[in-house]
Amino acid sequence: MSPSRPQAEGVKQFENERVIVTEWRFAPGAETGWHVHGHDYVVVPLTDGTLLLETPDGEKRAELKVGVSYSRNVGVEHNVINANDHFLSFVEVELKP
Questions:
Q1: Tens digits of pLDDT across the chain (97 residues)
Q2: For the domain that residue 65 is a member of, what is the CATH number?
Q3: What is the pTM for the complete model shown?
Q4: 57 inside domain
């Protein structure tokens, strides 16, 4: 994590034997810190905005649109940063094997 960036807040909403549901809340410029996903997952945007993704292959941008979900596979490694000057949030649904 960058010492100059605020920390994104992950609030676990639900977990059972099949899924983990977490709401991620990002102040402007906030980041998750580097992490590797241990499960396939689905992202459900709650706000529109742009994510800056720091990845082992370089920086990428992802545009979020309210209600337009997307999925990624297990093993994704990145640091997720709110690249907006406004609050951003999404729900992440991790799918357990």
A1: 667 899 999 999 999 999 999 999 999 999 999 999 999 999 999 999 999 999 999 999 999 999 999 999 999 999 999 999 999 999 999 999 9
A2: 2.60.120.10
A3: 0.93
A4: yes
